[in-house]
Design goal:
This is Sulfotransferase family protein. This protein is 45% helix and 8% strand. It is an alpha/beta fold. The protein has one domain (6-366).
Length: 370
Amino acid sequence: MSRPNVYLHGGWRCGSTYVWNRFRALRETLSYYEPFSEQLASCTTESILKNTEQTWDSRHPALSAPYFSEYLPLVGTSGVCFYDDRFATQRYFSAAHQKLFEEDYLGLLLEFARNENKRAVFGFSRSLGRVGAIKRVFDGCHVVLVRDPLQQWLSSRSYREQTQPSYFELQPLMILALARPESPAGAIARWLRLPKLSGDSYRHQYRSLRRHFRTLDDELSYRAFIAVYLLSYMHALLHADLVIDMDLLSRSPSYRQSISSAFEERVDLAPDFSDCSLPLHATDALPIDVDRIHDEVAERVLNQEIGYRGELASASIAGSFSVVMNKLRAAHRGPANAKEHSALQSIPLVRTSQSGSGGAGGLRRWLGLG
């Protein structure tokens, strides 16, 4: 493609709004904020214009326009045209070979940008489980954003109202609870004893989950978050054209420059990341044993993946799994333990064969899990 579109794949509270906003500042782009957000199912012109970074404790950078302004020409009688609120979390996990139910909707957004003679930029926060499926249908530059998982969870947890779980904490629980029962995510949901959600719409499902978790235990909250983190990134990284370490982007001027240069080389766009600065949450009095949870959830996720996909298929994702595990092991250990690396280097994905891996136990040993 001579003018490739850009797909930014991240999670809640990982800095994805910041990166999307830097692309929005470019005159060549039409930058869509959170295309799978459930708010798009029922938004109106009035609600879009009222929804800004100043109407809630967003901790987001100053925006030049309300979050969803780019959708205004596409708002119909019931939200944005072609949007289905099952896009938000119910279809979060979709394998690369599976039908992309969001195809017509995303195609509409692309067509509108093309008619405006603009490059489309998608700032996703709900796409990590379906990067492969999106990339199979829509070519372009697919970028995966990765942040320290503990900092990301602490940011989500900080929005709790007294003892009630925050919206951001409930999203991983909802993703797992809605996953297909036979899938690895569905098995994790049973392991965590998550409830079955009632109702067909996102609103009913979310309310059902909030009623169930009037209070949320820190251990369960973090386990669910790490399970979705692992299940998402171990597949998303396989399809990334560029990976951005958000922690490094926040503290390294040279890394920020290398990322800008990478975009200029790949898509002929040069977003300015010079002011990137993610806040750090204190980790000196954590209410949970982070390392133990990482090991237990990783072991469970890996076993489910091997059982679901078979040894050979699981071996194909072993390299990306190890990259995510390295991020988990570096969590809460501070900037001094993070080594700067080149943004222009693709993540090396180590392929292992069935004969060489020594079975599931061999994979676990190779990944440092025993």
